Amino acid sequence: MALKVWCSIAVPREWLFSTGDPIPPNAVAGQVWAATTGEGVADALVEIRRRPGAEGVEAPDTFAYFAQADSLGIFALRYLPTGPVELLAIQDLNGDGEEDFGEPVRRHAFQLAAADTVVLPPSTLPLLAADTTWAVLEGATVLDS
To answer: From 98's CA, which of 47, 54, 88, 143 has a CA 20 to 30 Å away?
Structure first.
């Protein structure tokens, strides 16, 4: 497992260390955008983790890797786990860092190898809020057997 450590200093730096496995030099990048306006979603929260239950993935091995999109909705993550992964993009309206009811969310599953550089196509991550309107019965018809 690799762990990425961030700290606030004058010159940004990344420190990586591993407790066993080699650190894969892979990367995933893309843009999170609003399906209703077509504009990038500023500060969208992007999370990638191995898919639990997928072939070869133990349930506890679901350490999450996070990034926050920039003002245009563009994000990049590096040094990610290999194998079947799931990307979760959230327009985190209340700032709690979690997927909540009513927040626009998008999931995307794919395979990631150790040396992959994946640039997700624009059609991959449109965010659309869930429809929270109650269904209303307009009418009913009895069908003859």
So the answer is: 54
